[in-house]
Fold:
Amino acid sequence: MTEWTLGIIGGSGLEALDEIENARWTKLKSPWGEPSDELLMGNIGPVGLAFLPRHGRGHRLGPSEINARANIDALKRAGCTDIVSISAVGSLREDLPPGHFTVIDQFIDRTYKREKSFFGSGMVAHVSMADPVCARLSRLCLGAAQAAGAETSLGATYLAMEGPQFSSRAESNLYRQWGCDVIGMTAMPEAKLAREAELPYALIGMVTDYDCWRGGEEVQVAAVIAQLMANSDRARTLVLELARSLPAQRSPSPIDTVLDAAVVTSREARAPDLLAKLDAIYARADRAGS
Structure:
């Protein structure tokens, strides 16, 4: 086996990966609550994989109901070294049509009902989100998407909205004025929590629609689902191509040790109950004396 274990978070239209070898659904407990589903664990060749359907099998969970802390914690406990998120998005640009894949590099977080940190009272930490994705992993995802036959671009700003309703026209046009490229409901706080868990994170947005800014169009669920199904085969091939493209040796990433400079609470003031919940997230940094 290689030194990589990929955590794959599948969004709408991607609830399983038949390509995983030695596949087994595994239930992992998290002190942060229930993950969206069991993890489908196995490998693709020498690369370990842990697949998690973000909305649960059968799409049981709405965007505000997803327990992102439990999901990221479970992937950390499963031994993942890196996380790739595959997500449906609406386009806010004419040149990002339905069927296009884009590798996200920035976010604007407009969610407000979700727990956004593993840390808090009794254990305070501040991680940088200036560059919220892993550039190395994002480039690898770009190559894998292109090898899968998807028209793909690198670099886009993702507007994370609360949902579950789609945008009003006024909101859609406002987000375009802000310079956003795509819109979705699930990448936040997922990306923030991955950073706190010291897991390099990349997000591939699969465009399903033009949102509602364009020519008086409305987002129609039936059309979105149809495009999701059209995208899903390429998304599965993307994961295969990504696993095959990884170098045998995983060189260290600065994200692997981000907590070394993030925790500000002195050791004697740290809350034991919170430390216990952080046993997977903070274990490496704790051993390092941070």
Summary: The domain at 5-287 is CATH 3.40.50.1580 (Rossmann fold). The chain has a mean pLDDT of 94.
